[in-house]
Amino acid sequence: MKVEDCFYLGKIVKKYSFKGELLVKLDTDQPELYENLDAIFISLRNNLIPFFIESSQLHKSDLLRIKFEEVDNEEDADALLKSDLYLPLELLPKLEGDKFYFHEVIGFSIKDKNFGHVGIIKGINDSTAQALFEIDRDGIEILIPMNDEFISKVDRDNKTILVETPQGLIDLYLE
Questions:
Q1: pLDDT tens-digit profile of 92-133?
Q2: Is the pTM of this model over 0.70?
Q3: Measuring CA to CA, which residue among 167, 168, 161 is closest to residue 121?
Q4: How many structural domains are present in the chain?
Q5: Burial class (CB in 10 A: 0-12, 13-18, 19+), 102
Q6: What number of CA atoms fall less than 13 Å from residue 162's CA on the CB side?
Q7: Is position 96 within any domain?
Q8: Residue 167 CA to chain centroid, in angstroms?
Q9: Looking at 72, 91, 110, which one is the last position of a domain?
Q10: Which residue range forms the structural domain that includes residue 163?
């Protein structure tokens, strides 16, 4: 299994007990979806290693308490601390309507209601306060904020996102 075939689920943040239990900070709005997993991939030394789950339960709001098979003491648990957890992409819940996963829209066309065809989404920049569509228009990079007010429609069948941006936003990149 490669990282490209998976989605990031969270990070092991601390030990919970002397029996090898660990707490995972989940990167999701719906932690309850991941409470009863059978197995998970842990990134160790740049490899994804499958680990089978003996038991798991939600702990406080966004933490998952996990007991892995064959991780039975603090020393075993220490070796996994700060590791990233992944699951195969096919386990992502399907999103409907205008909601989408960032990886899902790479390669989609962006059309602006006033401007017309803007370009192709080549990436998502989520390192800023507001996530941005990174769009390629014939070699020119255009950044459009991923703002719910701008996104009019997500058309998965035609791989197109229709936006309505403020007048002049796209032109700033083309002058």
A1: 877 778 888 888 899 999 999 999 999 999 999 988 888 999
A2: no
A3: 161
A4: 2
A5: middle
A6: 11
A7: no
A8: 31
A9: 91
A10: 102-174
